[in-house]
């Protein structure tokens, strides 16, 4: 009088691509009317069957990673995250696709950056760029930088103060002086001069700073001329670079007692020239006002994986005063305020920070038919599968 009847399949568990549909048994009377299951023999009840079913094409979607650390530990900074367009092409093939696919479906793209506010910025250390190394080639010397506190010095943590001096190695010994041909004579003996260019170059011919060549070996750039035999007289050389990169300093030049003997240059002891007429060998010089770039420490990387960004503050100080407009600092020497960074490579799968079961997946059925070993269902039902 009563029997089990296998029903039609339930709706597909997935609204797109491939899902699972399940059959179930109903207890019916001889005339086909459905009755309570207790009228049928539970022992003979057919086992439910599970079959895969196909829905419509899956729409694309935006996937986001978690927010990075704030780019600054204090004050206003920026947080970043990865935003990628994904589409399920088939079970087990959930792929990153071009952003234009999501945009073409008028799906609002989540923001990939937002402003973050840390605690109020307290005092912090700021440092200038390192000076050139004081050493000559292949020897060791010292380079220095200025370290200052953004507030009163007593307010900065002394234990975290950056170093102001550091050992360094001099440039390679391939630096050498090079000279051009002599120019024409400018006048008669005693007043006439021939001039040539003297430059410091690397072995590859690149012009270097003069301090990288040995000053004691610097060739003369100015010779006397005007007659085949010219009595000794003072011949002043060109001024060397100012010893200060900014503000007031001193520049020096070499002054030699020299003449010509049979048309050949000859250097004489200083006593052979009139001491009262010896030109000055040093003079004061003034470079641009002493303005320096100072930087804070680099922030943390904006991303925990993949290519991110680090930022820092770059300020121009003229003496003790912060210059906010019309920088007097050399813009060509301005330190970078941001740089790329990468802590580790990102996984190739879409990020899943929350690990919650997707509402479109029938996770109870996935557990029942033991599909957690499948990549797609393991991800769609990550919370259920993690406890299976």
UniProtKB/TrEMBL annotation:
Keywords: Repeat, Secreted, Signal. GO terms for molecular function: metalloendopeptidase activity. It is found in: Secreted. Its main location: secreted. SUPFAM superfamilies: TSP-1 type 1 repeat (SSF82895). One of its GO terms (cellular component) is extracellular region. InterPro entries: ADAMTS_ADAMTS-like, PLAC, TSP1_rpt, TSP1_rpt_sf. Residues 351-388 form the PLAC domain. It comes from the Eukaryota. One of its GO terms (biological process) is extracellular matrix organization. This is PLAC domain-containing protein.
